Amino acid sequence: METNANQENASLDIPVIDLSNQDEELVARAVVKASEEWGIFQVVNHSVPPELIRRLQEVGKEFFELPETEKEAVAKPKDSMDTEGYRTMYHKDLEGRDAWVDHLFHRIWPPSRVTYRFWPKNPREYIEVTEEYASHLKKLSEKIMEWLSEGLGLRREALKEGLGGETVEYLMKINYYPPCADPDLVVGAPDHTDVNGITLLVANEALGLQAFKDDNWIDAKCNPSGIIVIIGDQILRMSNGKYKSVQHRATRDKEKTRISWPVFVESSLDHVFGPLPELISGEDSAPKFKPYVYKDFKFRKLKKLSLD
Ligand SMILES: O=C(O)CCC(=O)C(=O)O
Question: Quick one: DSSP state of residue 8?
Fold first, then answer.
């Protein structure tokens, strides 16, 4: 089959699901279908207030526009084995020009795993806005996991419990991609699937996120108050392959700075996850994946080692 891997297919859009629809069964079916067929979709009219998303984007942008010395106040320590903190990553493009992507990572839930040392103190509203966003986002991601659990014929709590129940962690990342004159030369985020369970992402108006579907890269157009949901490797494995973990990447805009705010919902490092036991107990339901301690799974994926 001929592959169009580097082409875009303008005629396809990622599914958009309106959560304000009163028919919850219909909404749940749409979430399940999109997760089986795409592994990515956008939810609109959800429970996170649009004004809160706007403020989240405002405080994030203000932080990244501060002088470098101020951003260094929350820098990732050089000897840290963890991801939390601010980092600048330089790349050279093919013509030797410098291009860079800035990141800020910090956990936003559960409170016992939050280290405020990595949360910007400037702008002053950053903490309040981000805490409020965390509590809304937790509810939304748990609702989506409930629908996905029922789509597997299981109890609503099954996927959340499989991911670790109340020990599940929410890791926020802010990607700051300055414009690049030739966006084909510098990729914002390389092609990957997310290692975690589920990712909820908002972005500013610049286009960039693309999902791979049927041999094409599809632009994931994000409504200003919409939230993109990305199914990751943990849900793929816990569902024994029913839900797809989507390959995606981020390109850069020629003129505009692009900023995105993914929140990665994932197990704590010592948690063991794998196909949910109820899905592999029948005679013809062999497990398609091995269970892993999440720490080992992440390490092997990062190092590009084989994963069963
Ligand atoms: O910037 C985006 O839209 C995607 C970012 C992403 O995939 C990542 O940070 O892992």
Answer: B
d(CA 218, CA 10): 7
What is the average pLDDT value for the chain, to the nearest integer? 91
Measured in Å, residue 282 CA sits from the centre of ligand 1 at 37
- pLDDT 10s digits, 166-219: 999 999 999 999 888 776 666 788 889 999 999 999 999 998 999 999 999 999
Any ligand 1 atom below 6 A from CB of 40: no
Beta-bridged to residue 90, according to DSSP, are: 100
Beta-strand ranges (E) seen in 116-163 are: none
Exposure string over 42-81, b if 16+ CB within 10 A, otherwise e: bbeebebeeebbebbbebbeebbeeeeeebeebebeeeee
Write out the two tokens for 299: 């390490």
Residue 252 CA, ligand 1 centroid: distance in Å: 11
Q: What residues are annotated to the active site?
A: 173, 192, 194, 248
Gap from CA of 240 to ligand 1 centroid (Å): 25
Is any ligand 1 atom within 6 A of the Cβ of residue 248? yes
CATH superfamily of 7-268: B-lactam Antibiotic, Isopenicillin N Synthase; Chain (2.60.120.330)
Give the residues across from 41 on adjacent strands. Answer: 229
Residue 250 near ligand 1, beta carbon < 6 Å? yes
Domain extent listing, the chain: 7-268
- pTM of the shown model: 0.93
User: What tens digit of pLDDT does each residue of 253-298 get?
Assistant: 889 999 999 999 999 999 999 999 999 987 778 999 999 999 999 9
How far is the C-alpha of 259 from the C-alpha of 175, rounded, in Å?
Answer: 5
Task: Name residue 6's amino acid.
Answer: N
Each residue of 33-88: pLDDT tens digit?
999 999 999 999 999 999 999 999 999 999 999 999 999 999 999 999 899 999 98
Closest CA to 42 of 74, 59, 19: 19
